[in-house]
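Reference record
================
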Amino acid sequence: MEREARHSSGLCPAESSACPHDLEAVSKVLPSRRPGGDNPRMDTPTPVLTIDGPSGSGKGTISRIVAQRLGWHYLDSGALYRAVGVAAGWADLDLDDAGALVRCTFDTTIGFREGEAGDLRVLVNGHDATDELRTETAGAAASAIAAIPEVRAALKDRQRAFRQPPGLVADGRDMGTVIFPDAAHKVFLTASAEERAERRYKQLKDKGVSVTIDGLLREILARDARDASRAVAPLRPADDAVRIDTTGLGIDDVVARVLDVVSRPAG
């Protein structure tokens, strides 16, 4: 029997007074956590598997499945930046105004609620923004916001706070290089830009979103360039990460390869 993944994604912990709404719902979804995230009863840090990669590489889908198989917590770090991006869009903020975006990062509150289908619904400033978080517009805003050093610094400790027993699968772009550099297991997923555009096209068409493959390909290439060239935490594999090219591979094949990485002795 597969175990349920313990979902953990968001800006503020359940016990934080900064998130006054839906605290009961949040506490049911998020684990309790303390700074550092290590088990106080053990000398060995809680194990972490980082799965980094560019947009459309499959890291979100793979991370959720692997977390479920392992029975570990799951951190979707991209949801933090996307949530701020959505909030910035609602406030009609200029993405070139770093000061306004930093203030938005601190002002944005995130809540969580389990949906009827058992999925995790994300509330941004009290509104269900789960679907909007996955649009290309939110992704582009997240990429711009993630390039601001003050924003990344504000979110760093909050992401590390999700490190809780029995383990954490952390999905993002700098999980293995910046947030959890001491992680026992690191994976970097990639795929050709054309295949990533095709995947996004199918996902968005299934949701009824009108897009074109050419348009998505341009957006993916532009985001790749931004993510790889930003001064703070650029997208790159950790030196000790196992690289997996998912081009032409099915989900089961990729999951099996990632689980094989976890099964190897750490170090």
The beta strands are 6-7, 48-52, 73-76, 110-114, 120-124, 127-128, 168-172, 185-190, 242-245. Residues 6-32+47-262 form a domain with the Rossmann fold fold (CATH 3.40.50.300). The radius of gyration is 17 Å.
